[in-house]
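Researcher: We're teaching a course module on how sequence relates to structure. For the next exercise, students receive a sequence and then see the predicted structure as tokens, so they can try to spot secondary structure elements on their own. Here is the exercise chain.
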Amino acid sequence: MSIPVSRPHLMLGTRPLVGDTVLRSRAHQWVWRLQSAGLLAFTFMSFFPAWSHVQEYLFLSLVVMGCAVAYGQQRPLLTPSALNLPIALWLGWILLSVPFALDPAYSFGEWRKVVVKVLWFYWALLVLRNTEYKDMEGKVLTAVALGSLGLCCYALFDFVSRGGILSDRPVRARAPLSDYNWLSSYMVMAVPLLAAGMVRMPRLPWIVLYAGTAVLALTAQALSFTRAGWLALLSQGLACGLYFKRVALMLGIFAGALITVTLLLVIDVGPFHQDTRDLWTVRARAAVWSLMLQEIGEHPLVGIGYGTETFMARFGDRPETIKTKGSHNFFLMTAMGSGIPALAFLLWIFATGIRECLRAAHAHVNDPDTAALWVGLALMLVGVAVRNLFDAMFMGSLACLFWILLATGLSRIPPRQVSS
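Model: And here is the predicted structure for the students to work with:
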């Protein structure tokens, strides 16, 4: 007499469980695909500030969905990162300074906006470390190229249609529903990544796309007539030459910049670019920076309130702010608003991001395709830092793009290496 063998996987009562497991697995797979597609779409959309509200609503939906699936799969929601500590200290100190602000309610509202922007970084890290797609970083670079291309085409067409000329800057190229400062900041972020894309692309059509977009980006930067933008690009070029130890490149960039400045400021070039040569904006910025430094000296620990509007609330009646409205320096604005410790933590974030990217690039020096991404991201950080020395451009969709790109760089670094 044979003894029946139990086969649990064929029992009627267990079939729904097997089916549920398969369906759940497929649903999770599609959720991560949706998250990856959303990351690429947001990278593209970040180049168009007019879409920022739609972008925010979709982003919060994807965050909730991604966190729920990651929790259900027992995946870590917060992965180790070299930026975890400086980001936590930066946000914490700003919150600590809120009760001492001129307008605590306003500063708390600005702090909440910063928290949401930082959430982009952690969500992007979550998606990039759980996506099933290969070379997701390359896809992010492609989204940057397409977004830059669309923005440049808009800016150049708008410049021509409004009667822009090359001899001076009564009309300046601008980003949609914003201004030339936004366009300049986008180009500072895009140019080094477009250069990295040219190195990474194996096929000529893609190289042409990246190279052509880079040319358009430099043209848009030029037609924005923004000196701070060119200083940021100059700093990126010098940093690139310093990293690769190319003295000839550094000397060439420095000589070109010196010749250009000499032509604009010393040689009599007649009616051309009189407004560009007029340094009243430099003097005006120096005046408002002096006011901010004085306020930082009086309130060095907790400042007088975080947020761009705090400056005008404090100094709106001063003669120095008649023409120059605003702080025109994100780093001084942070120190004046939340104290010197907040500035130190912010600089720590930038320094750590640059260090981690360059360390990873050096570790992959024999793999130029991979190293190019990290070098491009490090140069992006340098450019953003220099650009924000002259304007407070660390906000809105620019900040979203910044945090996505920073996460793209750190996502490829193994957690144990990042946390070491």
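Model: If you want an answer key for the exercise: DSSP finds 17 helices and no strands in the chain. Residues 15-45 form the longest helix (31 residues).
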